[in-house]
Amino acid sequence: MSETVVTSAGVELPPIPSRPEPDWVTLSRIPTLADDAPLVPVSLAPEPLKTFPVYAKQDIPGAVGDCYVREEVYRRLLGVARSLPEGLGLVVLDGWRPWRVQQYLFDTLFEAIRARHPEADDDELLARTREFVSVPSTDSNAPSPHLTGGAVDVTLCDADGLLLDMGTLFDEAVPASHSDYLERQGEDIDKRQRLARNRRRLLYHHMQAQGFTNLPSEWWHFDFGDQLWALYGGHERALYGPAELETIESRWRRQL
Prior knowledge:
Layout: E1 7-8, E2 11-12, H1 24-28, E3 39-41, E4 49-51, H2 54-57, E5 68-70, H3 71-83, E6 89-94, H4 99-116, H5 122-130, E7 151-157, H6 191-209, E8 213-214, E9 221-223, H7 227-233, H8 248-255
Parallel strand pairs: 4-6
Antiparallel strand pairs: 1-2, 3-5, 6-7, 7-9, 8-9
Helix pairs in contact: 4-5
């Protein structure tokens, strides 16, 4: 793909800014309105918004077979997809995440880091794990972002639906996954890295234009309405607390 991916409406997109990692204590102090907007499946969306529920495809325990988000998040994702240059699409890889999946991802990464760094103490292991996976929590004052339905993991695809090279793989827990990593390498990067940098810029700025904020350690992670969104967007309150996916059983229990 040519360098035209760095432009939107003929304007070259600026570099992704460097942002500090979230202070999780500060984050937990941000109040939440607890909007009860429903979770909706992204698979309902028309082209060019696509969904690929990656954790269900990988048979991760507890993963659901669709990507669910709050209704306002759904509409804003459609806005992003429709704003992209012709020939590009937006792919949602994950949205609302059951607590069981969050726990599985956290434990798996924690143990992988411990095996690689046996000298690390628990505090260091926790810090390294939280760089890429938040602590599993359904606490209304400090829910895991993906448990709110306001956090989404997204990437870009070409006109044939194939995922584009963004510099690292989704969920690759390495420094190069930080959103601004390729910006910090200056111009001393090869053609492949330059394309990946430009695609990250494209994704970042189109998501930002629809009101999303980005988690600095993950080029694929964006938020709307949760505490991370409030923190990085400068909002006094979050909109969404923990959410549960409605099932036939929960609906009948409520109705009866």
